[in-house]
């Protein structure tokens, strides 16, 4: 008879233990945390041209291949090359400040 009593006591103890464990799990019910909303300012660079609209197109240089071939002699070719060099120096004087401004 003590064996039957022991089996019943073990079953009752297991049943009480399981039911109290289940009751403990349901009693600690928590609500999920509220989502955190953050407003973040993101700065996005805006592409813009750094070349002013007043900068014209490249000029037609006087020392083109066709002009050099059509020159009468070496003196005329040298004069064309010299005139073309002066044009390029003037153009570089216009373009270099723009390039420097774009790098900043």
Structure, explained:
- The protein has helices spanning 2-27, 65-70, 74-103.
- It has 104 residues and is mainly alpha-helical.
- It has one domain (2-27, 53-103).
- It has 3 helices and no strands.
- The model has no long low-confidence stretch (mean pLDDT 84).
Number of strands: 0
Structural class computed from helices and strand pairing = mainly alpha
Provide a count of the helices.
3
| Low-confidence parts | none
Mean pLDDT over the full residue set: 84
**Residue share in β-strands:** under 5%
> Main beta sheet: strand number and arrangement?
none
Estimated radius of gyration: 46 Å
Listing every helix as H and every strand as E from the N terminus to the C terminus, the arrangement reads HHH
Based on Cα principal axes, name the global outline. rod-shaped
List the domain count as a whole number. Answer: 1
In whole angstroms, how far apart are the ends? 99 Å
Helix content: 55-70%
Layout of strands and helices, then pairs:
Blueprint: H1 2-27, H2 65-70, H3 74-103
